[in-house]
């Protein structure tokens, strides 16, 4: 006869049912709160990344627009035809035909690049020719910019200002025109920002109810808004706030904060913002979005989740009440059914175990086949990509060698860039293939003389006769067990990294050492190179993550990712510490 199930004996106690209901409610509440906090953090990070990407895009568009305006001024001011016409106009030798040609040329420029007006003046600002004669005059700000242009003898990109003469916000790009004799003339390119600059700044690439981009500058002890803003009207060059408003992102920008920040905008509403200075100007660009929009979907989900949890707790309470009322009557019947179910379950378990073994065997074969296909695919991709890359590199070399004397300087440079990028792509393919193989290759586990392995690795990278001013300090390295080939790759990558980033030092120095700590051995490679900012330390070991530009240090961004994967497969960990321009240390641990 089967034993009595104690669950049925305790089920008659109503206090136990209440305790269970309260416990379930508390557990659900805890997990619901944890889920909500985790999702808030994730949503915040996602929006940070999105705002940063949009700010980067807007910043690039703004800089491109500014560069194009300066290029226009440089092209026209240095044009021999323009100089000739300006000289004759200044000396009163121009003809009606020449005058019309000059006006026609300026008209095309104005239409194509949205200039409000283009003026030709003498060195005193006297207007000699105007594309739009009506109301053509220079205000005091434009005159000051003109004098700066002549004094510094270069193109000056003026600042946004309100022109009383034109009765609107105005911006000038002024360029000196050097004539064959006498004082220079001046070309003034007049820009009305409402036709292109303001729409460029105000546009947002994705649907949003509160996001916007703003440009500001410091004016006295205040921050001045330079463009029209989304939530208020007629604010350009009118809306300003004192620098004491330290919660305002615009004020934070003027005080040196950059990147992602939080604060309250001109409405007093909490926002997330990306702040960055505009190179070559006194402007700061701010891309922002209301926090309430960021969290709107999350709050809705939290409310729905709370309702769902309340319904679930209610259903559980009702279920316990029904079970309590019927449990006593059904006890013996349940015991009988449980014994029957137990026999059926035992038979099903035996059957399931057999099916599981068959599935494991089938899945194992499928994985073997998939790995073989993946290796074949990797080889095919490598071969198919390398062939055209070798062709590009080879034919570019032939072009440089056989036809180099026929190419101008730009052609030679472009040929060199093609070869460099083809070789870089080949190296990147090799690195990615090595990185993918690390997860599939079998590992050995043999004793390793770490000192000998490290010395051989460094000697292979930098032979003793080539070290010159480099100082290499080899400390005591404790032995460890692992895969010698993989650990050698770790040393090679860390040494290569240290050599590369200390190459700009007059007396580069690299040190290697180890120490025992609990149940692991920690190895460290220290250099006196360029270093890095610790706030980016978590990005060092990701694929393609680089903290320096290629114009500073070459690389593919895969080497440290390979180090991380190898050390992780050995059951260890890897980390880095550093300071900008004060060197860096890379450490990894392996089990004893």
Structure description:
The chain is extended, with a radius of gyration of 36 Å. 52% of the residues lie in helices and 18% in strands. The chain is α+β, with helices and mostly antiparallel strands. It has a domain at 443-591: Heat Shock Protein 90 (2-Layer Sandwich), CATH 3.30.565. The strands form 4 sheets. Strands 1, 2, 3, 4, 5 and 6 form a 6-stranded antiparallel beta sheet that branches. The protein has a 6-stranded antiparallel beta sheet with strand order 9-8-7-12-11-10. Strands 14-16-17-19-18 form a 5-stranded mixed beta sheet. The chain starts with 5 loop residues before the first helix and ends with a strand. It has helices at residues 6-10, 14-77, 80-90, 96-113, 140-152, 197-202, 249-254, 291-403, 409-438, 450-461, 484-501, 559-569; strands at residues 117-121, 127-130, 156-157, 161-163, 168-177, 185-191, 212-219, 222-225, 240-242, 259-264, 270-277, 284-290, 446-448, 471-474, 480-482, 509-517, 520-527, 573-578, 584-591. The model is unreliable at 1-11 (pLDDT under 50). Helix 10 crosses helix 11. A hairpin with a 7-residue loop joins strand 5 and strand 6 (185-191).
């Amino acid at each position: 006869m089967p034993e009595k199930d104690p669950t049925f004996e305790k089920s008659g106690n109503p206090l136990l049912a209440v305790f269970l209901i309260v416990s379930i409610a508390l557990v659900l509440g805890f997990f619901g709160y944890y889920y909500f906090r985790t999702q808030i953090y994730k949503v915040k990070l996602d929006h940070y990344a999105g705002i940063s990407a949009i700010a980067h895009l807007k910043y690039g568009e703004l800089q491109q627009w500014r560069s194009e305006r300066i290029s226009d001024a440089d092209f026209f001011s240095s044009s021999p035809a323009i100089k000739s016409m300006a000289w004759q106009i200044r000396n009163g030798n121009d003809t009606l035909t020449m005058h019309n040609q000059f006006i026609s040329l300026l008209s095309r420029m104005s239409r194509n690049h949205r200039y409000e007006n283009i003026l030709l003046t003498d060195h005193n600002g006297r207007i000699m020719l105007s594309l739009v004669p009506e109301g053509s005059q220079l205000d005091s700000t434009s005159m000051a910019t003109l004098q700066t242009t002549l004094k510094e003898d270069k193109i000056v990109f003026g600042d946004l200002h309100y022109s009383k003469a034109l009765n609107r916000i105005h911006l000038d790009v002024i360029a000196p025109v050097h004539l064959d004799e006498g004082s220079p003339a001046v070309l003034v390119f007049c820009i009305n920002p409402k036709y292109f600059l303001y729409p460029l700044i105000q546009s947002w690439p994705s649907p949003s109810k509160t996001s916007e981009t703003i440009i500001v500058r410091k004016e006295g002890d205040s921050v001045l808004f330079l463009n029209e803003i989304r939530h208020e009207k007629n604010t350009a060059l009118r809306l300003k706030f004192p620098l004491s408003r330290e919660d305002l992102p615009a004020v934070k920008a003027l005080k040196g904060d950059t990147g992602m920040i939080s604060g309250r905008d001109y409405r007093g509403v909490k926002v997330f913002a990306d702040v960055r200075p505009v190179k070559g100007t006194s402007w700061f660009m701010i891309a922002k979005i209301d926090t309430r929009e960021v969290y709107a979907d999350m709050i809705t989900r939290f409310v729905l989740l709370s309702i769902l949890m309340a319904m679930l707790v209610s259903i559980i309470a009702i279920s316990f009440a029904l079970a309590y009322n019927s449990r006593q009557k059904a006890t013996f019947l349940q015991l009988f059914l449980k014994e029957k179910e137990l026999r059926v379950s035992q038979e099903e378990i035996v059957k399931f175990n057999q099916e599981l073994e068959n599935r494991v065997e089938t899945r194992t074969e499928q994985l073997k086949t998939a790995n073989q296909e993946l290796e074949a695919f990797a080889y095919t991709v490598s071969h198919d990509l390398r062939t055209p890359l070798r062709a590009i590199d080879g034919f570019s070399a032939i072009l440089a060698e056989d036809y180099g004397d026929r190419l101008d300087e730009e052609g030679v440079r472009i040929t060199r860039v093609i070869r460099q990028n083809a070789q870089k792509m080949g190296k990147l393919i090799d690195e990615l293939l090595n990185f993918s193989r690390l997860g599939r290759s079998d590992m050995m586990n043999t004793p390793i003389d770490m000192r000998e392995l490290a010395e051989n690795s460094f000697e292979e990278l930098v032979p003793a006769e080539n070290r010159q001013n480099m100082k290499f300090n080899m400390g005591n390295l404790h032995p460890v067990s692992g895969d010698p080939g993989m650990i050698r790759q770790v040393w090679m990558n860390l040494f290569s990294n240290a050599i590369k980033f200390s190459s700009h030092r007059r007396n580069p120095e690299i040190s290697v050492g180890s120490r025992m700590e609990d149940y692991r051995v920690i190895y460290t490679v220290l250099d006196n190179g360029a270093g890095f900012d610790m706030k980016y330390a978590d990005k060092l070991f990701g694929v393609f993550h680089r903290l320096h530009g290629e114009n500073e240090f070459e690389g593919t961004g895969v080497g440290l990712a390979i180090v991380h994967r190898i050390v992780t497969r050995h059951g260890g960990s890897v980390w880095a510490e550093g300071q900008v321009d004060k060197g860096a240390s890379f450490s990894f641990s392996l089990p004893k």
